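Deliverable D2.4 — example input (C-alpha cells):
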C-alpha cells in the first residue's frame, strides 16, 4: 500500500564527498542519478550539490504538498536581482517570476490559451505542419534527426500561433541559441563552481552572444508590430495592449521581451521533445504503431486533421499521454522553501531546494501497473494512476503549465498529420534520455523518413 502522507522517512543519498557533495555524479548523469537514487533509496531523499541542499521527493502526496497545498511556502528559485539558472535567459517572464508580478502577467497571458481559441490555433498548427511535410517530400528515404525536425516544427508553430510571424529563416540560429543558453542556464544551476557571467571566458562570451541574438529577435518582433500597427488578436497584441488595472500602465520593454522569449522557449522545446520521444516509442512498438495508423487512416481518410478530429482520435491522444508519462519533458519540478516548514512529517529548513521527481512519479510501482512499459491502452481502459499526482507532465497547483490545452491539441494533431503520411524508422541502436532543463534524447534520434502508402478509400 502507498505510504500515508505522514510516514515518510528521509534518506541521505550515500556517496557525498566533502565540499562537493553529490555534484560529480549529478553533473555526469543528472537523470540517471535522480532515477537511480530514487529506485535504490526511496521516495524522500536528501543530497547536496556543493553548498546547496536538495530534497528529492518522488511520491504523489509529497508532490501535492509542495506544489498545491503548501504552494505559497515553496517558491520559484529565481531572484531578479541575482539571476541564475533559467532566469539568466528568460529574465522575469512567467516561468521564472514570482509574487504580484507573476500573478498580473499570468492574468494577462492566460486568455490567449483559453479552450475557445484552440480550434483556430489547431488550424494554424496544421497549416504549419503541412508546410513542413512539403519540405520533407525531397527527403523521403533519407535519414534525418527527428528531434531536430520536431524542434523546428514546434518553433514555427509557436511563432505562427503566438506572434503571427514566421521564424522559418532563423530556425537554425534560434535552435543553436536556445541550446547554448539553456545548457548554460542548467550548468549555472547545477554547478555552483561555474564562473560568474562577467568573467570573460569563452563560454561566457558565447552565452552573451547568443543572448544578444535572441534579444535582437524579440525586440525586433515588438518594434515591427508597433510600427505596422497591425491587429492580429495574438499573444503579441495582448501583451502590447495590456494595462495595469490600478496604474493604467503598460508592460515595459524589458517585461515584454521576457514574456515573449518565455513563451517562445517554453512553448516549443517541451512539445518538440515530447513529439521526438513519441516517434521513438512508436518506432519501437509495432503493435501500437499499427493501431495508430489504423485510427488515423480511418478517421482522417487522407484529410488534414482539425481540432474536432481529435475527439475521434482517442488512441492517438493516448499515445501522446503515454509518451508524456514515460518521457516527461519536464522530468523534475524545482522549488525553494521560503520558510521553515513540515512536509509529510519531515522538517524542511528555509532555503533548501526541492525537486519533485515527475519522471520517478510516472514510473512508480505503487501507482502504476507495468510502469516501465509503453502501453497507450492504459489511458483507454480507464486505468488511471492510483493517485492524482502520480501523473503531472504539466505540473500541478497555481504554477501549472499555462500552455496545457495548447500542447494537448498540438501534440496529437501533429502526430496524426505526420503519421498519416510518414512512418519514421529508427536508424540507430540506442537512444539516451538526457536531462538539461527538459528531457532530451542525447545527440538527437536518427530516423529514416519512410513514406506511407495511404490506403485509397473507395
Ligand atoms: C508537452 C508540452 C509541455 C509540457 C510537458 C509542459 C510542462 C510544463 C510544466 C511541468 C510546467 C510547470 C513548471 C513548474 O511548476 O515549475 C510548465 C509551465 C509553463 N509552461 Fe509548459 N509545458 C508544455 C508546453 C507548453 C506550451 C506549448 C507553452 C506555451 C505556448 C508553455 C508555457 C509554459 C509557461 C509560460 C509556464 C510557466 C507557467 C507559470 O508559472 O505560470 N508550455 N510547463
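Example output (designed residues):
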Amino acid at each position: 500500500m502507498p505510504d500515508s502522507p505522514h510516514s515518510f522517512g528521509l534518506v541521505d543519498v550515500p556517496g557525498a564527498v566533502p565540499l562537493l557533495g553529490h555534484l560529480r555524479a549529478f553533473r555526469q548523469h543528472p537523470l540517471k542519478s535522480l532515477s537511480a537514487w530514487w529506485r535504490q533509496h526511496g521516495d524522500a531523499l536528501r543530497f547536496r550539490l556543493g553548498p546547496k541542499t536538495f530534497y528529492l521527493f518522488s511520491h504523489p502526496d509529497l508532490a501535492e504538498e509542495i506544489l498545491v497545498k503548501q504552494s505559497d511556502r515553496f517558491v520559484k528559485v529565481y531572484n531578479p536581482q541575482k539571476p541564475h539558472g533559467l532566469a539568466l535567459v528568460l529574465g522575469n517572464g512567467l516561468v521564472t517570476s514570482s509574487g504580484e508580478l507573476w500573478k498580473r502577467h499570468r492574468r494577462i497571458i492566460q486568455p490567449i490559451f483559453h479552450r475557445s481559441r484552440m480550434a483556430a490555433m489547431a488550424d494554424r498548427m496544421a497549416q504549419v505542419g503541412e508546410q513542413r511535410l512539403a519540405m520533407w517530400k525531397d527527403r523521403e528515404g533519407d535519414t534525418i534527426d527527428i528531434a531536430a525536425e520536431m524542434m523546428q516544427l514546434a518553433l514555427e508553430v509557436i511563432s505562427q500561433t503566438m506572434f503571427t510571424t514566421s521564424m522559418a529563416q532563423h530556425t537554425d540560429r534560434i535552435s543553436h541559441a536556445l541550446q547554448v543558453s539553456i545548457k548554460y542556464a542548467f550548468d549555472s544551476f547545477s554547478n555552483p563552481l561555474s564562473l560568474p557571467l562577467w568573467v570573460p571566458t569563452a563560454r561566457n562570451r558565447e552565452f552573451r552572444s547568443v543572448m544578444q541574438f535572441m534579444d535582437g529577435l524579440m525586440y525586433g518582433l515588438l518594434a515591427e508590430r508597433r510600427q505596422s500597427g497591425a491587429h492580429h488578436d495574438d499573444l503579441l497584441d495582448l501583451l502590447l495592449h495590456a494595462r495595469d488595472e490600478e496604474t493604467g500602465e503598460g508592460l515595459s520593454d524589458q517585461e515584454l521581451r521576457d514574456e515573449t522569449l518565455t513563451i517562445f522557449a517554453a512553448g516549443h522545446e517541451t512539445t518538440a521533445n515530447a513529439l521526438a520521444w513519441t516517434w521513438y516509442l512508436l518506432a519501437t512498438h509495432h503493435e501500437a504503431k499499427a493501431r495508430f495508423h489504423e485510427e488515423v487512416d480511418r478517421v482522417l481518410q487522407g484529410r488534414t486533421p482539425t481540432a474536432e478530429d481529435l475527439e475521434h482520435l482517442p488512441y492517438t491522444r493516448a499515445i501522446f499521454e503515454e509518451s508524456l508519462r514515460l518521457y516527461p519533458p519536464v522530468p523534475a519540478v524545482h522549488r525553494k522553501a521560503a520558510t521553515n516548514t513540515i512536509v509529510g512529517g519531515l522538517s524542511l529548513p528555509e532555503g533548501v531546494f526541492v525537486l519533485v521527481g515527475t519522471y520517478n512519479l510516472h514510473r512508480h510501482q505503487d501507482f502504476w501497473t507495468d510502469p516501465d512499459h509503453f502501453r497507450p491502452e492504459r489511458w483507454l481502459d480507464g486505468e488511471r494512476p492510483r493517485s492524482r499526482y502520480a501523473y503531472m507532465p504539466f505540473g500541478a497547483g497555481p504554477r501549472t503549465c499555462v500552455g496545457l490545452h495548447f500542447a494537448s491539441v498540438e501534440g496529437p494533431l501533429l502526430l496524426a498529420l505526420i503519421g498519416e503520411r510518414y512512418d519514421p524508422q529508427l536508424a540507430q541502436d540506442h537512444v539516451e534520455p538526457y536531462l538539461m532543463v527538459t528531457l532530451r534524447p542525447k545527440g538527437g534520434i536518427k530516423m529514416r523518413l519512410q513514406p506511407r502508402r495511404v490506403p485509397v478509400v473507395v
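Residues 94-95, 106, 158, 262-263, 266-267, 270-271, 274, 324, 329-330, 333, 393-395, 399, 401-403, 406-407, 411 surround protoporphyrin IX containing FE (CB under 6 Å).
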